[in-house]
Amino acid sequence: MAQNLIPSRDEVPANDKWDLSTLYASDEEWETALSSISKLTEAVVAFKGKLGESSDSLLGCLKANEALEKVIETVYNYASLQHTADESDSAAQDREGRAMMAYAAADSATSFFSPELMAIPDEKINAWIVLPEFADYKIFLQKELHHKPYILSEKEERILSLQTESSETAHNAFSLLTNVDLQFGSVHVAGEEKPLTQSTFTTFLHNPDRKIREEAYKNFYAGFVQHENTIAALYAGSVNQDVFVARARGYKSSLEAALYGNKVPESVYRNLIDTVHKNLPTLHKYYSLRKKNLGVPELRHYDVYVPLVKNVETKTSYDEAVEICRNALSPLGKDYTDILCGGLKGGWVDRYENKGKRSGAFSSGAYTGYPYILLNYKDDVIRDVFTMAHEGGHSMHSYYSKTNNPFMCYNYTIFEAEVASTFNEELVFEYLLKTAKTSEMKSYLLSMRADDILATLHRQTMFAEFELKTHELVENGTPLSAQVLRKTYRELLEQYFGSEMHFESESDMEALRIPHFYNAFYVYKYATGISAALALAKRVTTGGEKEREDYFKFLKSGGSRYPIESLKVAGVDMSSAEPIQSALDTFANLVTALEKNC
Prior knowledge:
mainly alpha; single chain
């Protein structure tokens, strides 16, 4: 497919699209499933007021709720995937909207469950959950009971559940504005005008021509500047929603509310920021090296993504990238690579950009159907090979989780998710470095890996610190205006990039373009994830069968353990700062190698 032209969705060949038939064979079948949600909800509601009567009553409710949740998950996944493939498709928008409405209605109707469960005396519930018939629900119930201090009355829970749909308004509006309505114009490349989009922006920033990078950067952020107050208001609304829910439930802060469910201590979050702060001199050293190698009088924000090693062009077809993944991930065994590569070529993936498609990449694994992957693959961006491996790691984690756990405890946490994905990236890097045919390619890979670790560890920590600051501002009574958000973000830019970096007036608009900020306290898991992944990749590749099996125990854990515990099973302790420091040491070693080779 010609990648300098962006096709409409109906112009994309079927082989380049994901196959959603493992969810539903047709939109009509989806409609039937959607319509069944109300009856399934009624089956759960029939147990209202009866949960504490007997173990049979509780078990009956759990089974009815499981049937409901399976259908809701599959219905929403199908609609959401269609929508992300083309956000301008009004029919797909409608399906996703109706799926969310059905979920919200079911959530409201079944909101009695948690308060009633919490009202069952401890001695009674503890005796019930060890019965054999509760085997598939024991872990789910234990995790539910962990929330007991913050569960409200039935009426209060219903009120919170009624605003589930409206709570997504800020995120949905941001997505439509930035992915569909916002226009960024074009960029002049070799006498031609090429479209500037959310997806092509990254490609332009990798261009060795500084004028192209500058034009793309300024045109892109100009689009956001035109709507800065609107976008700032959307983000402020998202933060206010987080603060509202935390306060309504009685948490001391939004951060505590976000971490409590997974038993992640706040010290893990704050230790990450503190440890990265202590190692910022190495990051500043890297930017000094970048300035020197690029030969620029002043390092600009649009200079930080272009490869340090010049004149190394790469072109990797989609099929070639699949084979790189197969070879690089061979330490995990043939079963793993056969399943993954079969999926990458056999319906798991929506491969290339099309008009209206969501930017970036993700994996969307559910209990039913393939563990789907959205890519915007470009054969002239070698980092997209790493993205394929990254999302493949997510999908394989989903595959092993759902095939080794009952539905009610199959779903692993986001804290764990970033481990499997960045583990795969590290193995791909080691493979490509080992098979590189020239010293220039080795230097190129070293540079790219340093950039990737920087993006995942340092940059995501900066994002995490921004999220913490914005939520604390609101919690302390400061409204989030565009001016406040930009000032807060600019201070972080200056701290993390150091004195070598010269920013543009619009550079702090980056704060208003990050989609992950609408899922608060998410991005820090990228940083903890890469730290755990680097440690585990080294452990597996230098170890033996035991180390590999420990890693597979982690992949198969699903939601059967809390994340800190499941990573300890794999062989890494994330309750300490040691893995973070070790990852930062790896980055420092890459910088030293680059100083010698560039």
